[in-house]
Amino acid sequence: MNTFTIIFIGLLGLSLLVEMWLANRHIRHVATNRETVPKAFRRKISLEDHRKAADYTIARTRFGRLEDIYGTALLMIWTVGGGLEWLDRFARGFGFGELVTGTLFILIAFIIMGLIELPFSVYQIFVIENRFGFNKTTPGLFINDLIKKTLMLGILGAPLAISALWLMQVAGALWWVFVWLLWSGFTLFLVWAYPIWIAPIFNKFTPLKKGTMRERIQALLERTGFRSRGIYVIDGSRRSAHGNAYFTGFGKSKRIVFFDTLLEHLGEKEVEAVLAHELGHFKRRHVIKRMMLTLGMSLFGLALLGWLITQPWFYAGLGMTQPSNHAALMLFMLIIPVFTFFFQPLFAWSSRRHEYEADSFAAEQTDASKLVSALVKLYKENASTLTPDPLHSAFYDSHPPAAMRIAHLAGKS
């Protein structure tokens, strides 16, 4: 066992232990506070709804522990257990050239990973979500979505994989710069194409009907200087009772999307306030900042891979006997989360800071009390716990805890 194998297994084991510790803390904290609604919410959230949110959170967290253990075991099998080594030999057995073999290797790996994770998706949707009254997905719709996603993997993933492998083969020592340019272009293409071509494959988007709500939203867009190709309602209720709203696309493809489930529960002023929060992310350039950070990290990662790909111990330490571009690329994608795991609280902190900034923008443009009431309704309807474990929340949560977020907005009223 070489040194890199020991480092990898050590970090993988340590990250799993931390995940288990944080999950257990979270479960205990939520269970301890299950019978008491936080003082700030007692007039707005019933004890019954608070208990439901606690039970839902505990069920999801317990299931998450199993997923973490299972995922860790699978990663060990794929790497030091020889899973990718076997798959590499299988792909080479067809006798194709290096580019086709590498592309086949990557696509088969992703398909197998998807199949292995399928039972967890089924349990999450048809057991946990069903138990708490959120699931609206039928088995037929689930299978239909699965087929579409698999086809999308082939249509989009295969050209990307073969292009990246070709660049790695012909572009010399600085191949990682060209692959980064390819990846950046592909990412921007997806952001542009998603609202126009991809999302409508899975959901129906209907323009928001004319009326006072549309007029209120248009007025908000005008006074904030935001331009969009349309305001749409998505049929989220086909799959889930959870509500949401989001922006998608960039440039002329920008769209504002409301889940039909969200519009069912919020009043017009509350919808306006939620939209103002989303606009805050745009006006404070959070989307651009996150994209630049992501692209910067991918450039650093590819540069690192450009060095690792020449190191025999990298392959040997992760169970591969025959070095290749496709093996290096797949190994790197699999193990990088292990080596970046302990940076997660930093990313979560940055995201929560952006949420506070977006809330502040919304409070400037609309009535802060309406955003508070909208958030409370969303916490209730989505069964989001009001009492997360502080350490678990600081490590994982992209949004501030409910009490802290609403206290921040109360100061803006």
Description:
This protein has 413 residues and is mostly helical. 72% of the residues lie in helices and 4% in strands. The protein has a 4-stranded mixed beta sheet with strand order 1-2-4-3. Helix 3 packs across helix 4. The protein starts with a helix and ends with a helix. The mean pLDDT is 94.
Task: Provide a brief overview of the structure.
The chain is mostly helical and 413 residues long.
Describe the secondary-structure layout.
Layout: H1 3-32, H2 47-78, H3 83-92, H4 98-131, H5 139-170, H6 175-202, E1 205-207, H7 212-224, E2 231-234, E3 245-248, E4 255-259, H8 260-265, H9 268-283, H10 286-308, H11 312-316, H12 325-340, H13 344-365, H14 368-381, H15 390-396, H16 402-410
Parallel strand pairs: 2-4
Antiparallel strand pairs: 1-2, 3-4
Helix pairs in contact: 1-2, 1-15, 3-4, 4-5, 4-12, 5-6, 6-10, 7-9, 9-13, 9-14, 14-16
**Helical content class:** over 70%
Strand content: under 5%
Rg computed from alpha carbons, rounded to a whole number of angstroms: 23 Å
Number of strands: 4
Note the overall shape. globular
